[in-house]
Specification:
By secondary structure, the protein is α+β, with helices and mostly antiparallel strands. It contains seven helices and 28 strands. It folds into two domains: 341 residues, YVTN repeat-like/Quinoprotein amine dehydrogenase (Methylamine Dehydrogenase, Chain H), CATH 2.130.10.10; 62 residues. The termini are far apart.
Length: 558
Amino acid sequence: MEIVHEYVKLRSDFGRQCLFSDRHVELLVDIPPNPKLAMQFVLKETRDLGVQGCWEMSEHEVNTERVEYDIQGINHVEGGWPKDINSLEMEQTIRFRKKVEKDEMYMNSIQVLGELIAQCVGQNNAVDIYQQYFKDEELLDEIQEAPSVKIVNKYRDPNQVKRNITCLSWQPSGGLNLAAAYSCLEWQKATADLSKKSYIWDIESPNKPRSVLKPTSQLVCLAYNPHDLNFLVSGSLNGQIMLWDPRSGQHPTKVSPLEKSHMDPVYEIIWLQSATETEAFSASTDGQILWWDVRQMSEPTERLILDLSRKENPDNALGAISMAYSVTVPDTFIVGTEQGAVVYCNRAAETPAEKIVCTYDGHHGPVYAIQKNPFFSQNFLTVGDWGARIWSEDIKESSIMWTRHQSAYLTDACWSPVRPSLFFTVKMDGVLDIWDILFKQNDPTLSIKVRDEPLCCVQVHEAGCKVVSGSQLGVISLMEISKGLCTQQNNEQALLGEMLERETKREKILRAQKVRDEAGNMEESPKELILRPEYDFYNLLESEQRRKQWETRQRNYP
């Protein structure tokens, strides 16, 4: 029997690395002898001195008295009534109470006891022994801490031919397992020896994956079941949906038939909030949204074609590559497409044509990532081309906030689950950006160079203190962020709500003004449009001259 012991230790615990190199002899300093110092040398006689190395102490033992505990039952019986009063007769007890309440001694006793009770109640209200005092001051110190990110560990693709990490999923309920989907989306680079395996990593053990997933086709996306920590659902490159239970082995437990699945790669799959907790829905570039019940995956339970003309024509459907869903509004979801549009859908609609509610003019290119804010479900984040945008469901013409254009293409983004105003983005130059829109909107709060190759995806742990990113060469980087970035600030949620509401109102006012200007321009002829600026200019000059003349008369004739 082979016995293997795995010893894991951080490189930083070994101390500073020693670097040896061959070099020629080099004279650093030359100190010649000084005869004058030799004359000052005095030889002293040796002396012996005894030193006690520890204090002299005496041993003393103390033993407390032994206390014996005994459990006994108590039979409580209402008492205190006179012998001539039957406590079971309500009329007798009521008459006796009225008689006692009129007694002068009773009234004096109640007044004295009332003052004592009032004093105790006042002390109790003045000092709360369970209250956390100076909480705001401690939080202020945490906020003043400089934001920082530290790379803790790296997990590399065990295969020789490296592949992209297209999706990452944390195990829910504070789990330390991380599922990663590995695939090569560029079919031109696919070779015969390209592996189809994906892995589940234990973040405490970076040398070897915890579990191996062997699908029939490469996995593009996967997600843990939020209610059952042992089940995963995934979408593959050939369009199939697979259900996994790592306890049962390396192969999927259930697979959807190829003829009933998507016709293109499945780029997004999400678990639904349902009574059975076994429903999920997927999105693909074939323009279809399919709903599944993982207990019976012979065919999808429902189908939606993203045809904006509401004719359910697959040839005119928009390719879906990202999708967002909120458990607070389980019937609605939003889809990011290859064409740059964001489609808002309602599953509860009666007809398929009514399920496509509206569209948002999103980006110039594909919407690679879309996610709703965990604290404000009516606002969502999108990533495409060279920037990130924050939207409101009430405004379809434009976003309410956006970042400036970045030097590199953005590939993924996600909100922080613990801080409403914080979100993360990754780019093609291998940089992770952390944005705090309450702090500043034009530039990220913190940027860190994670890898030299492009980063493909990013995911935050539900505790908010750990962030993972996957690169183009199959390397997962685990990072820990500073406490200020994963601790909600004082009144942060209220301040962000006011900011989003203010920006939403601003966009509505600008849109209304633009509509009025366009309507006014349509009523005027081209000649009037040309002459109107000249007319306004001369009117301004005349008003300015009249104002100066009036000021001159006031100075001359006060």
